[in-house]
Each structure stands twice: as structure tokens, then as C-alpha cells.
Amino acid sequence: MLIVNKLLPQGRGIAGALVRRAPLVVLDWDTRQKSRFDAVDASGRALGVFLARGTVVRGGDLLVAEDGSLIRVQAAEQPVMRVTACAQHGSPFDLLRAAYHLGNRHVPIELRPDHLQIEPDPVLGELLQQMGLDVLTMEAAFEPEGGAYAKSGPAHGHGHAHGHDHSHGATTPAAEPHVHGPGCSHGPAAAAPVAAIALQGIGRGPRPAATVQPHVHGPGCGHDHDNHHGHGHDHSHDPAHGPGNGHPRG
Questions:
Q1: Four-CA torsion 59, 61, 66, 68, nearest 10 degrees
Q2: Model's pTM, two decimal places?
Q3: Per-residue DSSP letters for 224-240?
Q4: Could you count the other beta carbons within 10 Å of the beta carbon of residue 33?
Q5: Of 46, 131, 134, 182, which is least packed with CB atoms within 10 Å of its CB?
């Protein structure tokens, strides 16, 4: 038995010529949703597949054997119920509503733009017909959507691992550089509320910052100029400190 322990989603990174030459192994959905299974490829080799738990195998994936050989996976046709909107009385929105109700029942669903596919279930088939949808039982490959934490990409090869840019050309407008000027609320004007609040603690109440003037020492300023508080005045050369100025001589 040939041991297989690696999967390349949709043959990513492998040359097309090598992919086409790889022997096929045809697997139904029940087998492909397992991470451990046995199979036989088109060349007659017995395969023992041991993948990471939670891995889902999709049609078009490549399996890699321990000897380096490649095996291409094909989704087997199997019985499915194909659900379509009624051409005469329905609308595409009916499919969206049906997918919602089937999802609430945790039913594996293959989503297509114009139809849904589920595994045959007579009860669900009757429910869908009561909702006004057309239900047809047929043979087809079944590729239901993968769970949010499936290790391979969702059905139809739209996994994020393939490097597509899902922005589809949409770009986020670049932020314009800020230009400082009148009314921009930045710079000195922004400090006005802080300056006003700082004045509240000295008994004068809040005042606009623009009215706060620098203190000028002089007669009547209320400061004691003999206490060496750092103002740096030289009283010997200040005309204001002469006879009759209230300061003692000597």
C-alpha cells in the first residue's frame, strides 16, 4: 500500500503538465470529508491516505505520496437534490431563503449562483417544494461548503490560501494630510481650555487663555520685593526705590 500524507489544494504550485499526467482517484463526498481512508487510483495502486485531522479533500486537489508521486482527486458523481428557484413564480431570493433554512438544520449545502445542491432527503425535498422551489434528484459531483475551520479551502477552490485579492480592485481612500491653520483646533488654541481650568484654583474663576497676560512687577502689584523670590530686581538702581517709597534707608 502506498502511503499518502500530503495534500495540495487544487494542485497549487505544481506545473499543469505534471497535474494532467497524475493518475486519478475518484472519491465521493462521504470519503473526501474524512482525513483517513483507503482508496485505489486509476493505475491500480492501493492508497492509504493519512491527512491532518479536519482536512477536507476536494475535486481537483492533488495528493502526494511518500515516494513523491502525485494523485489527482476527482469528485465522484453521486445522488443529489438540485434546488432551483421557480422560473415562473419565484426569484433568486428564494434560493437565499432556502440556504438560510437548510443552514439552520446544519445540512451540507453546495452553493451555486443559480442553484443549491444537497444530499437526497425526502423530508427536506418536500419542505423546499412547499417554499415554492423546484427540486430535482440527479447524479452529480457534490462539493458542499466547508466549515469555517476546514483545513482545505471551501468548495470550488475559493479558499484564501490561493492568493486572490478579495478587494476586487476596491481601494481605501488615502487620508489627506492635516494642514494646520485657523479653526483646526490644534496648536496653541487647543491649550486654551487647559489654561482656563488652571486658573480656577487661584480664586479668579475660569478665564479665556487669550486674556492671561504676563505679570509685570511694579507699585501695587502686591508682591514683597524684599523676599528674594527670584525676580532678580536690583533695587539700588531702580528709581522707584527712592525717598518716600516706603522702604527703609541704609
A1: 120
A2: 0.59
A3: -TTS--S----GGG-TT
A4: 18
A5: 182
What CATH number has the domain bearing residue 17?
2.60.260.20
Q: How far apart are the C-alpha atoms of 165 and 159, rounded to whole Å? A: 11
Q: Are residues 131 and 66 in the same domain?
A: no
- Based on the domain organization, do 71 and 86 belong to the same domain? no
Which residue among 42, 75, 108 closes a domain? 75
DSSP 136-184: EEEEEE--PPPPTT-SS--GGG--GGG---TTTT--PPPPPPP---TTS
Q: What domain count does the chain have?
A: 2
pLDDT score recorded for residue 2: 96
CATH of the domain at 133: 3.30.70.790
Pairing of strands 36-40, 77-85: unpaired
Residue 34 lies in a domain: yes
What pLDDT was estimated at residue 167? 39
Q: What are phi and psi of 127, to 5 degrees?
A: -60, -45
pLDDT in tens, 55-70: 999 999 999 999 999 9
Supply φ then ψ for residue 92, to 5 degrees: -55, -25
* Spans of the chain, pLDDT less than 50: 149, 153-154, 156-177, 188-212, 227-233, 235-237, 239-242, 244, 250
In-domain check, residue 169: no
- Residue 73 identity (one-letter amino acid): V
pLDDT number for residue 182: 59
If asked whether residues 49 and 82 sit together in one domain, one would say: no
Structural domain range at position 68: 2-75
